[in-house]
Amino acid sequence: MYVFDLAAEQEFDPKRHVEKILGTDGDGDFTVACWEPGQVSPNHCHPEATEIYFCFEGGGTMLTADGETEVKPGAFVVHPPGEVHEYTNGPTRTLLFRVRYGGDTASRCLDWPTNPEWRASTSDIEYFGENPTR
């Protein structure tokens, strides 16, 4: 059994959202994700893993190919393997609890328009070349 106090585990950074891995078990991990107002994730997917978010406090929007979905306290969001998604935090600090499972939890980043310093890795370019999203 694993038990965590998300409020005690929170860490914020004004430059970038913080994903703090709290532990791993088998083929997955569990994380607290801490977001300052307006922070945005890269547009990414986990080709081999399911990713689940539970909004503990705060909230924002999740963008997928199906559209934009509001994420608010109590919301539970499940991304199946390979689903490209981008999270934009709302006007207050947010704590999300995240679980990834199913094997390789590595992400592939399609783009990150809000981060001008980001550059795609060779493996990201190859992945999306073989698995186009648009």
What this model shows, in words?
- This protein is mainly beta.
- It has a single domain (12-130), classed as Jelly Rolls.
- Helix content is 10%, strand content 43%.
- It has helices at residues 6-9, 122-130; strands spanning 18-25, 28-35, 43-45, 50-57, 60-64, 67-71, 76-79, 86-89, 94-101, 108-111.
- The strands form three sheets. It has a five-stranded antiparallel β-sheet.
- Strand 5 and strand 6 (67-71) form a beta hairpin.
- The chain is globular.
Strand order of the largest sheet: 1-2-9-4-7
How many domain modules? Answer: 1
> Low-confidence stretches at least 5 residues in length (pLDDT < 50)?
none
Q: Report the structural category.
A: mainly beta
Secondary structure elements and their pairing?
Elements: H1 6-9, E1 18-25, E2 28-35, E3 43-45, E4 50-57, E5 60-64, E6 67-71, E7 76-79, E8 86-89, E9 94-101, E10 108-111, H2 122-130
Antiparallel strand pairs: 1-2, 2-9, 3-10, 4-7, 4-9, 5-6, 5-8
